[in-house]
Write a structure and sequence with these properties.
Shape: globular
Strand content: under 5%
Helix content: 55-70%
Largest sheet: 2 strands, antiparallel
Strand order of the largest sheet: 1-2
Oligomer: single chain
Number of domains: 1
Amino acid sequence: MRIYLWPAQRNAWLALFIISLSLLAAAAYFQYGLGLEPCVKCVYQRMAVIGIALFALLGYWGARHALVRLIALAGVIYSAIEGLLIAYDHWDLQTSKNAFFAVCESNPNFPSWAPLHEWLPSYFAAPGLCGDIDWSFLGVTMPAWMTFIFAGVTITVAVASLSHIIYKLR
């Protein structure tokens, strides 16, 4: 299928939603199955993935409506870029020469009207330390993998969005 058609295809939005849910399930497995405590940056990355999932769901529901599609695309790109910046900062923090002294906030900075870390502390509390490297796969840490994932989502959705807009303007 041509990438310029993806924003108007419900299956593409559904695939992005399923990928996001899979990442959230993996986060839950790492936390509860492997006993790895998330840090503040991990929780913020979760929120970025939740943002991608919610906007993907919006895109799925409104794929046939140009305005809804535009809002969903903008929301996914925003969430993916925010996640990319946080994941890269986390990766950089872990690989810095003074990673041992790397500190991050002890509680997530959620808005006062939505203190998720108080409402659902089992999923949004952040008892872990940002500088700790508790897991790696193929020699690559979790923040590095998340950097690659967010970069992939950002690039894919940006290319699909731009090509879709150009296609519609022709």
